[in-house]
Each structure stands twice: as C-alpha cells, then as structure tokens.
Amino acid sequence: MSSDNVIEVRGLVRRYGELVALDRVDFTVRRGEIFAYLGPNGAGKTTTINILAGLLHRDAGQVSVCKFDIDREPVAVKQRIGVVPEESNLYPELTCQRNLEYLGQLYGLGRSERRGRVDELLETFDLTEKASVRFRALSRGMKRRLTVAASLVHNPEVVFFDEPTAGLDVPSARTLRELIRTINRRGTTVFLTTHNLAEAENLSDRVLILIKGKVVTEGATDEIGRQAAGAEILSVVFSAGIPVDALRAACPAVMSANITDEKWRFEVANVHQATMQIVAWAEKSGLTILKISTETPSLEEAFMAILEKNSAGSEVRR
Amino acid sequence: MSQIARALFISRKDVESYYSKPPLITWGLLFPVVLMLAVYVKNPATYLVVAPGIIGMTLLFGNTSMAAIVITWEKRSGTLQRLLLAPVTHRTIVLGKVVSAAAYGAATSTVLTLGLVVLLKMPMVHLPVFIVGLLAGAATFALLGLIIAVRVREVFEAMTLLNFFRFPILFISGVFMPLDALPAWARPIAMVSPLTHTVELLRFGVTGRSWFPTPWIPILVLATMLTISWLLAGTAFRRHANR
C-alpha cells in the first residue's frame, strides 16, 4: 500500500445470495482528499461503506483501511475512522454532551482529553448552548451536526459520509458542506457518498461512479465531466437571434446546439476551431458576440451520460 | 484502554439509559411481589418453599426481557450500529450488555430478597451460595435473552421466542413444584434447565437444604451453562447484530 493511500480496495466482491452487489471493485483513496463515491440507488455505495467500516464482511478481494485489513484487524481500523451514516444514530435519550463523552470513552480517550475534545467539538459545531439538551429534542440539522461531531471525537484519519445532507433544509445543508470542507482542510480524508451531484462536484477532488456494483469511471472531478460527455461546451450570447441551421452549416466543429435564456450552448469537438468558425460566421452575418466562454459539462451531465451509456447493460447480474 | 474498561462504559451507559428508570424498576418488582404476597396470604407457613423459586423467576423474566428489549430497541434505533462502529470487539459489546442486564436483575432480586428478609423474616443460612446463585443466574439469563433478541428486530418477536422456553421451564425447574414431585420423564429436562440450578442454589442459600446433595453440583452446572451461553452469544451477535 502506498503511503499516500488511506484506502485501497482490490477486487472487492460482495454477494447477497445470488445478487452480486459489488463486482470486483477496485479503487484507492489518497490521504487528505475528498473522494466522492457516486452511483444510483442500489449501486452498492452503502454496502461498500459498511465493508470499509467493518459492519459487513466481503466475499472476495482485498480491503485495506489506514494500512490495516478490516477483516483481520477491525478494532485498529475502527479506531482510525469515523462514520456519519445516512440516518443519525446517536442515543436519543442522552444529552449532546453525554453522547460525545460516551463515544470518547468507547474510543479510549482519557478523562481530561475527553472533556476538552467534547467542549471543542460542541463549539466547532455551534452546539455549546445545546450541550445539556437530549439528542431526541434537537432539530434535524442539529442532529446531523452532532452526528458529524460524534464521528470526529477521536480525531480519525478518514471520515465516511453517507448522504450527509439528505433531508436537510438549504441553510443546514450549506453549513454541513462548510463543515466537511473544514474537516478536510484540517487534514482528514473524506469519503463521501451523495445523490446530490452538485454537492459532490463542489466538494470533491476525485470521483468514482459505481453502477450495478461495477466501477464505470474514476478520476478528477472536472476530468470526469469531459470524459463522459466526449465533447466540450462553448457558451455564446449573440446581439440578436440567429438562424441556427446556417450557423451549423458554416461551423462544422459545432456538433449540437441548444438555447437557454438567450445563451447558446454548443457542443463542440474542438473549442479553438469552433470559436474561430463561430466568430467568423458572426462577423459575416453582421452579428455581435456579447459573450463567449467555454463550459465543462457538469458532473450531473456527465453522470447522466454515463447512466444512459450503461442503461443498455443488463440488470444487476444474477 | 482495555476492552474490559470499554465494556464497563457500555454497561454504565445502559444502566443510565434504561435500567435506572423508575418504571422499569417498578415493573421488575411488581409481579414477583404480588405473587409472593398471594402465596403468603394463602398459607404463611409455606411461603419459604416457593420464595427461592420466585426470586429465581424474577431473575429469569427480568433479565431475559431486559436484554431482549434493549437489544431490539437499539437495533431499531440504529444505536447498536453506532456501537458496532466503535473500536470494540463483539465480545466487548456482549459483555457490556450482559453486565448491565445482570446488574438490573440482581438488583431487583436483591430488593425482593431484602423485603422478604425484613418483612417476612426469611432466613439466610448460606449468603455466599445465595449470592453465587443470584449472579450466575442473572448472567446466564441475560445471555439467553441476548442470544434470542439479537436475531430479531421487534420486541414482540423476541418476547414470543423467549416465552417458548421461559414458561415451560417455569413448571419443571422447582419453582412451584419440588423436583421430587416431577414425573420421571420431566426430571432429565429439569436438569438441563438453568432455572433449576439457580433456584436450587437460592434455596440452599435461604434454607440450607437443596434437592442436590451439595451446592457444588448446581454451581458447576451453572458455570458450564454460563460458558456455553457466552460462546453462543458471541457467535449470535457476530452473525445477527448488523441485520
């Protein structure tokens, strides 16, 4: 295992009876990055997290987390990771402070260290005033914040976030995203699964897309968009309406065109060539170009393109 | 920090969360107290025959039920998963859960015993044997409750499964009927019931007499059952806790 890799997964297989939930999955997560693990429902994301966190056994493959094999040394791995599950799983009958303190005890923190850490986390997550409030009495946003705080009580090397902002209102989701960034800036590696692709695009350094238990693509977040779309986007605002057929006839580098709010988006094979052709055609047609810029296809567009490409494939293999 | 220390933290949290609640303490005491009173009112001279049985029954029902309620509740609320994510072994979790459930059962039975000693002048001939019976029975029944509860998700499912063995053994373990009075076919079954050995140890502690010639027999049998239950609980927990 490279010293830069916090997680290494090779040939991971997990079956539920006849159903192959994970089919020879390979990936690595580098120390200090935010790694988004994406896929539609049933792709195998939560199964992967459960295996990496020691909740589920694998059927085949190698899984190393923080340099330890999760099946052979689960306690060593659990001491080094934090998990924020989709549903908050703290103790409803305990106060915020007691929840964190109890977890500090389970993670082996000494009394003074524990108290300091609990106070620090309550302050960081803006929950100091709620310290003596029972978990069940908190709002959903506060529950999520405390669940994240609980995952950090022992200063883990990696934190797994499973749909961290699902069901949160916009301000709470935004606060949580900021907290994820802050956690990462402090050196913690983040493993993120989410259905919110804008969130993944916004937060992550690298992305892996899993469909039906198989890895279909993996790479830097902006690279995935380009790879998946197979073309780049040129966005142009003209001074007046344009005859699009005439433009396409004059600009062979333009592959497709569509308009939204007076802004044309051209899918082009080569940005430089297409820009030259469009500028020349506009001059010839007596039109002024008010704005021209390139756009990378969004992660959502890339994700949809990948899904469409893979929808022709079979159902989850049986 | 050792796994045993972490198990004790789990126990302390469970006592704080569940077992120290007044309704649970009352619930654990009410039924045996009413039953004891009914026996005493009917014939004060014979209450001593059934008193050890009723203390044993309190342990059986209290401990199996509490372990079952706590495990199924934590499974449903996701807090058991929280525990599984912590750096503790499955055996540590089992130990933590069993110590707290056993402490609850031992505490309610102790309160009942003290009530009998103080109010009805119940004797206590061999206190150490009584304590051994109380603790070994409490731990064994808590483990049995956990073995069954960890396989299901609902409290009613756990209770139904538990009742399949709790009620039958109640009638063959010397609680209401002396072992001598049992039909011949029922005696071998009584010998494999942990309640029989618990009740006989409690009886020896209270009266100085038991169906067995020496208290060492039920102590050894109960120790064996405790070990087997411990091993089975570890396996059941590993297989079913996260389902």
Gyration radius of chain B (Cα, Å) is: 18 Å
Can you tell me the overall shape of chain B?
A: globular
Please bin the fraction of helical residues of chain A: 25-40%
Query: What's the total count of β strands of chain B?
Result: 0
- Helical content of chain B stands at over 70%
Number of strands of chain A: 14
- What share of residues are in beta strands of chain A? 25-35%
Portion of residues in beta strands of chain B equals: under 5%
Number of helices of chain A: 11
Measured between the Cα atoms of the first and last residue of chain B, the distance is 29 Å
Describe the fold and architecture.
Chain A is α/β, with parallel strands linked by helices and 318 residues long. In chain A, 36% of the residues lie in helices and 29% in strands. In chain A, helix 3 (96-106) packs across helix 4 and helix 8 crosses helix 11. Chain B has ten helices and no strands. The longest helix of chain B has 31 residues, at 47-77. The radius of gyration of chain B is 18 Å and the shape is globular. Classes of the chains: A alpha/beta (318), B mainly alpha (243). The interface between A and B is medium-sized, with 26 and 20 residues.
Write out key terms for the chains shown.
heterodimer; A: 318 residues; alpha/beta; 6-stranded mixed sheet; 4-stranded antiparallel sheet; 11 helices; elongated; B: mainly alpha; 10 helices; 0% strand
